[in-house]
Amino acid sequence: MPRQISITTLLSVGFGFLMIVAVITVSVIGVNTTRSNTFNLVSQLANSALGNLQSEIKNYLQPINAQLDYIAQLMQEGHISPDEPIKMEASLSGSLSALPQVYGMAYINDQYEMQIYERENALFFTHNWQQTTSLEPFFSTPSKIETVLWGDAEFTSDGIRIIPVTRMVYLPDGRKGMLLTAIDVQQLNEHLSQYAGEHTEYFMLLGKQKLLASSFSVPHVTPSEKNPLLDIASLDEHPISKIWSSERYATDLQLPAGMNSHLVYINDQPWIYIYSEVRTYSEVPITLGMMVSNQALSSEFRALILQVVFSALMLLLFVFLCWSFSRRLGQRFTRIAEGFEAIEESQLDDIETIQGSSIKEFDQVATAYNRMTDSLRQNEKMRNLFGQYVPADIARRLVKQEGELAPQEELATIFFVDLEGFTSLSERLSPEQLITTLNAFFSMVAEELEREGGIITQFQGDAVLAIFNIPNPQPDHALRALNAARRVLMRTEQERFNEQSLHCRIGINSGEVIAGNVGAPKRQNYTVHGDAVNLASRLEALNKEYGTRLMLSESSVQQIPDQRFRELGKISIRGKSQAVRVYTLPGA
User: Fold this and answer.
1) CA nearest to 200, candidates 274, 104, 110, 139
2) Predicted TM-score of the model (pTM)
3) Which entry of 271, 282, 364, 495 is 20 to 30 Å from 348 by CA?
4) Domain 403-584 CATH class label
5) Does 36-292 carry CATH code 3.30.365.10?
6) Backbone dihedral angles phi then psi of residue 520, each to the nearest 5 degrees
7) Would you tell me how many other CB atoms lie within 10 Å of the CB of residue 38?
8) Rg (CA), the chain
């Protein structure tokens, strides 16, 4: 192999001296003008200040949601009952100890009777909730509301601005209740004011316009009972009112993901707004941000402009030198680019390989390019195979075996699930709605089967056929099928699919089957055949006669000795000389 020259060595000789001159020139200017201020500005705006504030606000608000969810979960699981006041008081009082940012906590039952647990002088915020008209929509809705909800800001009878926070509770006996607490807006303002700097102010907006809290005071403007939260448009004497000005400009700040910034000139003076949206606490997003005034920016901007001018001059010099030298080097890249165009416009088999180079890096590029085209040819072959076979494990075996897959006779567990009442469902729904509903149901079934290692071989109308122990050995294949069935039945009863409530029936059988690919040469399907498959389908259908959701054959039950089952009896199966003993789960 001829001696190779590193492109690093080749470029270093030509540009090394000029790079040193440029770096020294730019460094002298940059260090003397921005060494103290630029770092502080960038670090303050881009990273630490708002990031720390986000963390503090999260630590301030998140425990409220967490405590309400925790108490609601304990009540829904029966660990705490509203009929046991002593336990209720102990639990809610303990929550109050962990939540100094709220005044108290209350529980309201479905008869609108209220149990109040309060701190000293904290009873006021519950009074407004004794009106049943404001509670009735929460208790009357048939769907469950298992999230913490923020209400609209309001004034208490004592003139305190609050934000009610509620969490519905669904007791084990079917009764409904509501946990209620409230956030003091003034206390939130005081918490935010702790972070104000000499030239920075912080704010929290509910949505885009309502001022929830701020580190600054707003003279001459007072919240009213009709508008407990000020609209920033009414604060025309304060820079916060200009945050969404149509004449705003993008900044070059390098901000963490989720943060945004822009610049607005107010009376010819620059203001930078840095903010992010928080969607954790209320249905309306909270905009949490900071404003940096012109006093903090003017000197840094002048220094940065000076540095940009000198950097631009040096950049022009480097561009000219790079252009004159790269003309020769560009010929190699042109050839590579032509090769990529050939990939897009031609067959992969027609692409020619790129010859090596005496320059080390170009030789590495040529080698990588040639390997890439070989890989693309292989991937094209894999895609053709994937188009013929659905299960991923089968596709991988086909690639490994060059497209040949011999028939396989194995002991397997067959899982057959079918929707109940599909005919009436198809009559009620439009074709588009029916397909969307089926796809939602099939997605859930596929997820649970894949969780247990099952392979779906067919989607048959409203039914799914899956197998375990083929093609990959699974000693506990019957147990895996049972676990998948439990999850499918549970989720079918608990979830809605395209807003539809569904029910399904499942048949499970274990036996010898033949697995293989069936179809035309250019379009094939991997499936299974045998009496065991037919029996699984028959068991699924027999659920209707026995009033069950799940039916297993004796051959499957025998492979799961540590599970409890309820025997349904012996049934005669068409085509079989002996009756088959069938089982279901207790309570199924």
Assistant:
1) 274
2) 0.45
3) 364
4) alpha beta
5) no
6) -85, 165
7) 17
8) 35
